[in-house]
């Protein structure tokens, strides 16, 4: 299925590597026939004419159609079109190879300058972010080819939508969803930091990087309808209908909070196997009212389009607004609402819609639904921000750490999170581990001249670097020794300068140490197990 905006690869396509650099030097047609087969493509010319792509173009803008095997040239690179993998009103998405470097890329070929201007503007803003750590597609360059603007991106694997289709609609597990959530929240947190709203989140615009080698490593793509938070977008029609935030439907002021609503809709789709809300504005608003409750009166009072979906209560009691019936909506707009049955009565139905295998999984479901409720709040001012969502128990797995090494579900959760960039321990633990040494109060009168520090735990990485390696048991003993001797972070030391209310309970301290020990234990076992297999 071809969906606009895909940056995907085709497993059946031939793999082109360094030998492609020599194609421009080839004069024999049989070389082209070997690579492409069948009918001779229009651009398969002898090398004396292959460089014609560098000559001045006299074609009218937008009238030239790029074909398979064409060579498109920027000021520094030449790109060979291998296949077309997406198409829409904006233009085409092509799988290509950079003939100078043999790097596979994705080319977005836009038909008009008007289509390209906004996306190029936003890509120039977004490219200051680290595409790896912030989980966003990497943009290489833009150039013009015979009246068409071409954007060059890194080539990714396939979209979450295509992946879902390959699974025949089978929903993802929470352990598979969690790393996706973490990466998208990181991306949206970064966008919020530079004042950008993506506004087009849907399964088609979240790409797997390379699912075979890094399962559920994803990146956010398509900034064609993104905008700065400083732009006035109230009343504009943006976002896919089934992922459209209530403030967009009602014509309220628009902020980056719409991306959090879109994320909630995406997570519901991935876990439940179908969209939470209809692809029809009336039915979508009706589903919001039935599943989440009617938006507050102060929101409906200020909405430019409120009266399209609601009517005022003539009886002067609460609520002030009533949802219109499908017939009333049709009489008002002339549009007959689509037939739609909401898949859930409320979000809590997700907790019991699958039989749980372990107690840990049930707790995980409750944490997931809690996050969904925070993302799908009708009032954008009360909706959770990406920064706070990154600290939500579902994302940080607070309820699962105690189950590590004792339950398969918790172990699988931790393992799948390891593909997330920089995810080893959560950021708070890593900050505390790296703090300077702090002397601990002694348990005897003599005291101690050798203070312990959490940072000492990091020294066990030496075990990993030794040529012959050390026994896992020895490494575990080292960790156990550090913990038993009272290795602690500054926040857990002397309480002379803080009030009792600020001192963490003892059980928190023990839980943290246990958490650190379990993490390093799992890492060591995984490492030595891998060495044994090798």
From TrEMBL:
GO terms for molecular function: ATP binding; DNA binding; protein serine/threonine kinase activity; protein tyrosine kinase activity; SMAD binding; transcription coactivator activity; transcription corepressor activity. GO terms for cellular component: cytoplasm; PML body. Residues 39-60, 431-454 are annotated as: Disordered. It holds the Pfam family Pkinase. Keywords: ATP-binding, DNA-binding, Homeobox, Kinase, Nucleotide-binding, Serine/threonine-protein kinase, Transferase. This is Homeodomain-interacting protein kinase 1. SUPFAM superfamilies: Protein kinase-like (PK-like). Residues 39-52, 444-454 have a biased composition (Low complexity). Residues 79-395 form the Protein kinase domain. ATP binds at residue 108. It comes from the Eukaryota. InterPro entries: Kinase-like_dom_sf, Prot_kinase_dom, Protein_kinase_ATP_BS, Ser/Thr_kinase_AS, Ser_Thr_dual-spec_kinase. One of its GO terms (biological process) is smoothened signaling pathway.
């Amino acid at each position: 299925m071809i969906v606009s905006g895909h940056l995907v690869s085709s497993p059946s396509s031939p793999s082109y590597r360094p030998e492609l650099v020599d194609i421009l030097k080839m004069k024999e047609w049989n070389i082209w026939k070997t690579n492409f087969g069948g009918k001779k493509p229009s651009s398969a010319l002898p090398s004396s004419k292959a460089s014609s792509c560098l000559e001045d173009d006299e074609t009218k803008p937008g009238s030239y159609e790029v074909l398979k095997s064409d060579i498109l040239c920027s000021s520094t690179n030449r790109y060979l079109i291998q296949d077309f993998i997406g198409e829409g009103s904006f233009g085409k998405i092509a799988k290509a190879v950079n003939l100078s470097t043999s790097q596979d890329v994705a080319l977005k070929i836009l038909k008009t300058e008007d289509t390209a201007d906004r996306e190029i503007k936003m890509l120039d803003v977004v490219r200051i972010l680290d595409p790896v750590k912030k989980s966003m597609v990497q943009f290489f360059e833009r150039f013009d080819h015979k009246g068409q603007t071409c954007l060059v991106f890194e080539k990714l694997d396939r979209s979450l939508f295509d992946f879902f289709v390959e699974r025949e609609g089978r929903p993802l597990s929470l352990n598979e969803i969690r790393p996706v959530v973490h990466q998208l929240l990181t991306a949206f947190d970064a966008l919020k930091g530079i004042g950008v709203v993506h506004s087009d989140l849907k399964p088609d615009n979240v790409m797997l990087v390379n699912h075979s080698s890094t399962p559920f490593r994803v990146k956010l793509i398509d900034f064609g309808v993104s905008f700065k938070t400083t732009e006035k977008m109230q009343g504009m029609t943006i976002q896919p209908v089934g992922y459209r935030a209530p403030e967009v439907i009602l014509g309220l002021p628009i902020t980056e909070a719409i991306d959090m609503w879109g994320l909630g809709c995406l997570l519901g789709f991935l876990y439940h196997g179908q969209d939470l809300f209809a692809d029809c504005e009336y039915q979508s608003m009706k589903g919001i009212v039935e599943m989440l409750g009617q938006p507050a009166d102060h929101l409906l009072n200020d909405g430019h389009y409120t009266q399209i979906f609601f009517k005022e209560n003539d009886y002067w009691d609460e609520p002030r607004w009533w949802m219109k019936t499908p017939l009333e909506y049709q009489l008002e707009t002339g549009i007959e609402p689509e037939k739609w049955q909401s898949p859930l009565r409320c979000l809590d139905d997700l907790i019991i819609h699958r039989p749980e295998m372990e107690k840990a999984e049930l707790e995980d479901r409750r944490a997931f639904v809690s996050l969904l409720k925070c993302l799908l709040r009708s009032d954008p001012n009360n909706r959770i921000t990406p920064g706070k969502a990154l600290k939500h128990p579902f994302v940080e797995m607070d309820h699962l750490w105690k189950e590590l090494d004792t339950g398969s579900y918790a172990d699988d959760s931790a393992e799948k999170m390891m593909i997330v960039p920089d995810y080893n321990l959560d950021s708070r633990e890593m900050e505390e581990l790296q703090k300077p040494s702090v002397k601990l109060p002694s348990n005897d009168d003599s005291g101690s001249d050798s203070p312990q520090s959490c940072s000492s735990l990091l020294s066990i990485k030496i075990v990993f670097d030794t040529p012959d390696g050390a026994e896992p048991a020895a490494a575990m003993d080292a960790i156990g020794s550090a913990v038993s001797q009272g290795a602690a972070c500054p926040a857990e030391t002397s309480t002379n300068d803080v009030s009792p209310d600020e001192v963490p309970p003892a059980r928190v301290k023990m839980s943290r140490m246990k958490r650190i020990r379990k993490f390093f234990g799992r890492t060591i076992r995984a490492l030595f197990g891998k060495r044994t297999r090798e």
